[in-house]
Every structure is written in C-alpha cells, then in structure tokens.
Specification:
Length: 283
C-alpha cells in the first residue's frame, strides 16, 4: 500500500515542476532551466541528506547502474523541457506516456518480473486514454512532439534502473547521484546558451528543483517497496495535475476528449491498485 501512495504522490507533484519549467522557458533558454533543475537539486538534497540521512550515505554499490540511470533521467529532462517549451503540457506529457508500456516490457527482461494479463490490460487501457487525449492526426507532429516521445522512452529506462538500484543502494544516495551527474553534464553545455538570470527566476528555479527533488525521492522510495510493472500504470495519474497546471497557468482548456481519456487513465490505475491489494488480502 505504501509503495502505491508514495508513487502516486510523486507523479502528482512533478507536473508543477514542469509548469514552472514551461513558464521560465519563455524568457530563458530551456537548457538554463535544465541547469537550474539539477544545480538546485544538489543545493537542496545534499544538506538534507547530511542532516537527516547521514547513516545512509555510502558510496554506491552499483556504480555502472547509477551512471546509466542518471544519464537516462538527464536525457529525459533535456527532451521533455525542450518539448514543453514549444508545445502544451498535456500534449507533451501524453506523448511521453509511452513510458509505462515500455517499463512493463522492460521489467520482464531486466527485472525478471512476471507480468500477467491484468497488468497488461491496465497499461494498455491507460495508453488508449492517452491516445484519446492526443487524437493522433489532430495534433501537429514536429520535433517537439518527437522529443516528448524520446523523453518517455528515456524515462522508462530511468524507472527500470531505479528499481534495479533499490536492491543495492539507499534512496538518498541514488537521489544525490542523480543530481550530481545531471549537474556535471549540463554544466558543460549551458555556458554556450547562458543569459542573465534575475532574482525572481532564481527563486522559481529553486522551487522547480525542490518540487522535482521531492517528487523523484518519493518515486525512488516507492520502487524500493513495489515492483516497477505494478506501479507503472500509476504514472498515468500525472496527467491529472498536468492538465490542471496547463489550464490554470497557461489557459490550456481541457476538451471533452481530454476528460474521456482521463477517465480511462484513472480507471487503469485504480484497476491495478485494487486488484493487487485484493491479491494481498486473499493470500
């Protein structure tokens, strides 16, 4: 139960980070926003780790997996932040929602998880909901759209590697390693695109990083407690707060299609959640 709650809250938080990133991208290069996301993530997570999780701070046992995981999250962030600087939040996220299906497939080969018809049904039902929202053929397909898809594929590998790390390394070590690698990589790129940042933008970058840090920490913790394929459909719930942020801050008014797609997405998540809990009760 705790794994589902942590995972769900993590996904519901992340669209607020995306909304701030989209807003900042109107004045800053999207790579500066990526830099702020990683730099301030370290600024927040390292002091908190030393204050509250000092006993868990050990050098990672799975260095190669930590590097791979961090790189895939970095790629996903680059692709997604570029995408939302061009297209709407709901459209970008819906396209990125290829990730739960890919996670389910990869969990069979990389994590040796058993994925039955019920989990496949939930994932596919959620994806149908996403397709209803984006209505292929009604939305222009461009490089920003391709980037959103690439973000989803990269994110699926990030989730799989996060689950693999849950057996060897602590959540806080994984979080700090993520920030460190991302900050290092973007620091080599961002100087070529740098423009002056004012105090208001710095504060928004700090808030963006705080939301992202908390959201990803909750997801990391959830993947220590539950199987990746079981938790995968819950990622679809991210689109609920994504649409809320898009409507309130960017006036992206949801249509009937979006509400219909949302209904299927929520049903898919509730289906797998209720079924897994019934299995535990009966076992």
């Amino acid at each position: 139960m705790l794994a589902y709650i942590l995972n769900l809250f993590g996904w519901l938080l992340l669209p607020f980070m995306d909304g701030i990133a989209k807003y900042l991208s109107t004045d800053l290069h999207f790579l500066q926003v990526v830099w702020g996301r990683y730099f301030f993530m370290l600024f927040i997570s390292i002091p908190l780790a030393f204050i509250f999780f000092r006993k868990d701070l050990k050098f990672p046992k799975s260095l190669s997996i930590q590097l791979s995981r961090s790189f895939f999250l970095f790629l996903s962030t680059i692709f997604f932040f570029y995408s939302i600087s061009i297209i709407s939040l709901p459209e970008a996220l819906a396209l990125a929602f290829v990730s739960p299906i890919i996670v389910t497939i990869l969990s069979i080969f990389y994590l040796k998880e058993k994925v039955g018809i019920h989990r496949w049904t939930a994932v596919i039902l959620g994806f149908i909901g996403v397709l209803i929202i984006i209505r292929p053929g009604f939305i222009d397909f461009n490089f920003a759209s391709i980037s959103a898809l690439a973000a989803g594929i990269s994110y699926a590998f990030y989730i799989i590697y996060t689950r693999k790390l849950s057996f060897t390394d602590s959540a806080v070590v994984t979080l700090i390693f993520t920030g460190s690698i991302g900050c290092l990589l973007i620091s080599f790129i961002v100087p070529f695109f740098w423009t002056n940042i004012n105090l208001n933008q710095i504060l928004l970058l700090l808030l963006l990083a705080f939301i992202g840090t908390v959201g990803h920490f909750l997801i990391i913790l959830s993947l220590k407690l539950g199987e990746a394929s079981k938790l995968a459909p819950l990622a679809y719930f991210e689109i609920t707060t994504n649409i809320l942020v898009g409507y309130v801050f960017f006036n992206d008014l949801p249509s009937l299609w979006i509400y219909l797609g949302l209904f299927l997405i929520i049903i898919s998540g509730l289906y797998i959640f209720i079924r897994e809990n019934l299995k535990k009760t009966n076992s």
